C-alpha cells in the first residue's frame, strides 16, 4: 500500500518527505506504545510507596531480594571471571562452541530454566543426596533463590566479560611480553585495568536482572510468604490475592531500581552492544 502511494507521487523530494514523515510517525507511535504503560504504572505506584514502608511483607521481600542479589552477583563474579578469561585463550572453534553453550540459557524461557533446576537439584536429581548426607536443600529455600539467580545470570556475566576481552588490543599484550612481562604480569598490568569498567558494568547488570527474576525463582524456591518471598514473587502473590495497590507499589520500586541500574551500567562503561545480552 505504501509503495503504491509513493509511486503515485512523481516528485522525488515529496516522496522522500512523505516517507520520512511516515517513519517519524511510526517511531513516535512505537515510543508511546512502550513508554506510556510504564509511565501510567509509575504514576499510580508512587502514591502507594509511602504505605509500603510499614508493611512487614514488603520490607521482608525487599531485604531478601537485596541479600540474594548481592550473593548471586558475587558468585557470578567469582565463577564468571576465570571462566571467561580461560575461554578467551582457547582455539576459535572451541571458543565458539562454548559461547553457544552459554547463549542457550539466555534464550530459554526462565520457567524452563527453573524446571531444569528443579529436576536437577530436587529429589529426582542430586537434591536427595544433598539432603541425606549434608542436610542441605535448594528446593523451597532461600538458597534456591540464589541458585536460580546464578543460573540465569552467570552466562550473561561471562558473555559480557568475553566481549570486553575481545576489545582489548592484543598488540598491547604482545608489546608487554616483548618488554619482559610474563603471562601473569601482562594479565595484571594490561588485562585487568582494561576490564575494570566492564566488570563493574557486568556486576550492575546481573544484580539488576537478579532483582527482577521471577520464573526460575518461583519454580525452585516457590512463593511462600515471608520465607522465599522476593520482590517479583511479592507482586505475583498480591496480584493473586487481589491486593493490586501493593503490587503496583512494589512494581514501581522495581522499575526505579532498573532505571538506576541502567544508568549506572552506562556510567561505569557499559557498551551498547552488551545491552542486548543484558536484557535478553
From TrEMBL:
Residues 62-265 form the ABC transmembrane type-1 domain. It holds the Pfam family BPD_transp_1. SUPFAM superfamilies: MetI-like. The complex is composed of two ATP-binding proteins (CysA), two transmembrane proteins (CysT and CysW) and a solute-binding protein (CysP). Part of the ABC transporter complex CysAWTP (TC 3.A.1.6.1) involved in sulfate/thiosulfate import. Probably responsible for the translocation of the substrate across the membrane. Belongs to the binding-protein-dependent transport system permease family. It is found in: Cell membrane; Membrane. It is a multi-pass membrane protein. This is Molybdate transport system permease protein. CDD domains: TM_PBP2 (cd06261).
Amino acid at each position: 500500500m505504501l509503495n503504491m502511494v509513493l509511486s503515485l507521487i512523481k516528485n522525488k523530494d515529496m516522496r522522500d518527505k512523505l516517507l520520512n514523515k511516515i517513519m517519524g510517525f511510526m517511531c513516535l507511535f512505537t515510543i508511546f506504545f512502550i513508554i506510556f504503560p510504564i509511565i501510567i504504572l509509575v504514576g499510580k505506584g508512587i502514591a502507594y510507596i509511602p504505605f509500603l514502608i510499614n508493611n512487614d511483607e514488603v520490607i521482608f521481600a525487599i531485604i531478601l531480594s537485596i541479600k540474594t542479589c548481592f550473593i548471586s552477583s558475587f558468585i557470578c563474579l567469582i565463577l564468571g571471571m576465570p571462566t571467561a578469561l580461560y575461554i578467551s585463550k582457547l582455539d576459535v572453534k572451541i571458543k565458539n562452541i562454548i559461547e553457544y553453550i552459554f547463549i542457550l540459557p539466555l534464550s530459554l524461557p526462565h520457567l524452563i530454566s527453573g524446571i531444569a533446576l528443579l529436576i536437577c537439584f530436587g529429589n529426582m536429581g542430586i537434591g536427595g543426596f544433598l539432603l541425606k548426607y549434608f542436610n542441605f536443600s535448594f528446593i523451597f529455600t532461600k538458597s534456591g533463590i540464589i541458585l536460580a539467580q546464578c543460573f540465569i545470570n552467570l552466562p550473561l556475566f561471562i558473555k559480557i566479560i568475553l566481549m570486553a576481552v575481545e576489545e582489548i588490543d592484543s598488540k598491547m599484550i604482545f608489546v608487554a611480553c616483548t618488554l619482559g612481562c610474563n603471562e601473569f604480569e601482562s594479565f595484571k598490568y594490561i588485562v585487568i585495568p582494561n576490564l575494570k569498567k566492564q566488570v563493574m558494568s557486568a556486576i550492575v547488570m546481573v544484580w539488576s536482572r537478579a532483582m527482577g527474576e521471577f520464573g526460575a525463582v518461583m519454580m525452585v524456591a516457590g512463593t511462600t510468604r515471608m520465607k522465599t518471598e522476593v520482590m517479583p514473587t511479592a507482586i505475583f502473590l498480591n496480584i493473586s490475592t487481589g491486593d493490586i495497590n501493593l503490587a503496583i507499589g512494589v512494581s514501581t520500586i522495581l522499575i526505579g531500581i532498573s532505571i538506576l541500574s541502567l544508568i549506572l551500567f552506562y556510567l561505569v562503561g557499559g557498551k551498547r552492544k552488551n545491552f542486548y545480552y543484558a536484557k535478553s
